[in-house]
Model the fold of this input.
Amino acid sequence: MGKLSIDLLQSGMVLQSEVRGLKGKRLFPAGVELDEQKIMILKAWGVVEADIMGGTRVTSRQAQLERESVEDEAHLLAKRYVTQAFRGQESGSPFLRQFKTHCIKRTTRAIRSHRFSIMDTASMRDLYDYASKSTLRPGMVTLEDVVEKQLELTSFPDIYYEIVRELNFPFTTSRRLAGIVAKDTGLAARILKLVNSPFYGFPARIESIERALTILGSNELTTLTLGLSVVHHFPGVPDTVFNVQDFWEYAISCGILSRLLGSQCDGLMEERLFVGGLLQPVGMLLMISYDPASMCKAVLLSRKKGIPLPVAERAVFGFNHAEVGALLLESWNIPEPLINIVRYCYSPSSSPAPLDTSVVHLATIMATGLRRKDFCTFHLPDFFPDTLEQTTISPSALVPILSQYDRQLADTHEILTDGM
Done:
């Protein structure tokens, strides 16, 4: 097949010769089969073409023309889908314009390789059927009603509070804290898998919780423990068009992107941003558990009117999932900085800590744009340009952020949802 432009590379192609990036860094040897993650790494390192095994360009011309035809159709579908989701918000924002371009390219590849699913007719019909059963009107239920039902079902794991109490003890040690975490073998295993995954990328393997505490710090590990505990805390949601696996992929994406965006800012605690992003959408789970039909009604209203899901939730319930999630965290005595991130995610300028909240606000927008399925959060949340002024994150940071996101998502999702 010969040398191909980086934009023509596809999953399944095999390198004829090794590929080197900027400053001669050796990226992949000859014989490696490409996948989407490897192609993103090549782009992140400035590679413009690669030598691919197969026939010559001349002998493969017809196949290339056929592929370009399919690519054009996939590109048009991706462009239409992404444009609808962005709702014109990229106008006036170089960051969002560049991000939209990335979303179109990525969605095109996903459609072409059959890894992107749009809500089909049967699912849409189910959504209408569920929504038609809703009798809810704004004012009929309160935030407290929704949260109290959740609190009746289950309480938050005691291990988190044990760690907090131990941290307040003046003579605590890493060994004592590690002993508390080790009581929950599942939690301890997930923590060790996470700190040894691309999420952290430590050069040497970390074999114990005590060692993880030494490297990360007790406050950081406590915050991480909180996030990992929450993922396994919620019981299953009703079987509707709302898919809980899609939800957690979206939530974990919010967390990873929050952490990566936060690394571009000075003085922010990355674990807090990760957990804040992870917790940001948990109010959705409570709302759909409380009234599945009305949550489906909100999803349908969002899609029909072209409005963000939080706006549609307020029209149906009288409040949105950010407010529900914040009240739940208050009930659990979760630290206030995390509560503020969740509560003000869709209005970051109102937050007592606008920088943290602005980072998670931007991550929520990006997680919605990057999803691979037609998840219920179809339209991007309202974007507030002053969030970029708060964070000073440049459009040039998008490529390395997205490259790291691709490396981290699959492993982090598998670790956090293991056993669910």
Q: What stands out?
A: The radius of gyration is 23 Å. Residues 55-61 have pLDDT under 50 and may be disordered. DSSP finds 20 helices and four strands in the chain. The longest strand covers residues 2-5.
